[in-house]
Amino acid sequence: LFFVPQITVDVGCASAGYADFPLSVFYLAAAGCLFCASEPGNDAFFRLYAACLALLPWVKRDGLILWIVAAACGVFVILRARKSPLSSLAFLPGIVILCAWRLYLNATHALQAADFLQFNPETFRTHLNRALPLLSALVAEFYSLPTWSLFWFIVAVAFLYSLPRMRDPGVVALLIALIAPIVLYLSLYLFSSWPNYLDHVGLSISRLLMQVVPVGFLLIVLAVSRRPEKHPQRVEMPNRGTCAIARSERTPVVELA
Question: Total domain count for the chain?
Answer without folding.
Answer: 1
